[in-house]
Amino acid sequence: MILNKLRPGDIHTHVFAQQFPVLASDGHVNEFYFQARQRGVIFDLGHGAASFWFRQAVPASAAVSRPDTLSTDLHMANINGPVASMQNCMSKFSIWVCHSPK
Question: Model's pTM, two decimal places?
């Protein structure tokens, strides 16, 4: 429902979070993601402890394309976890981003 409300230039952060149904039950990307991208919605990674799932990101990025921007969800609760710094976050995605089709 969130993506249906967004307009061209709006940013959807945490695009691969568990709480956002990127993938349908059959494992394919939900159609509303394609529609949002066609409308000009910007997709931001928003990598955090609970706001990023590789199990959604890998299949979705192959079908939808990589996120438009990378950001962290760095805060006190996850600084000693998966998001130690922006450099740490970027290093996880350097190969994925450089070799994924846009």
Answer: 0.76
Per the CB < 8 A criterion, the answer to whether 102 and 96 are in contact is no
Q: What angle do CA 31, 34, 46 make, to 5 degrees?
A: 110
CA 61 to chain centre: 8
Q: What is the CATH number of the domain that holds 29?
A: 3.20.20.140
25 by DSSP, 3-state: which? coil
Could you give the number of structural domains in the chain? 1
Q: Tell me the residue type at 20.
A: F
Token pair 């691969």 in the structure block, residue: 16
pLDDT tens digits, 48-80 = 777 788 888 888 877 766 788 888 877 777 767
Domain that includes residue 72, residue range: 2-99
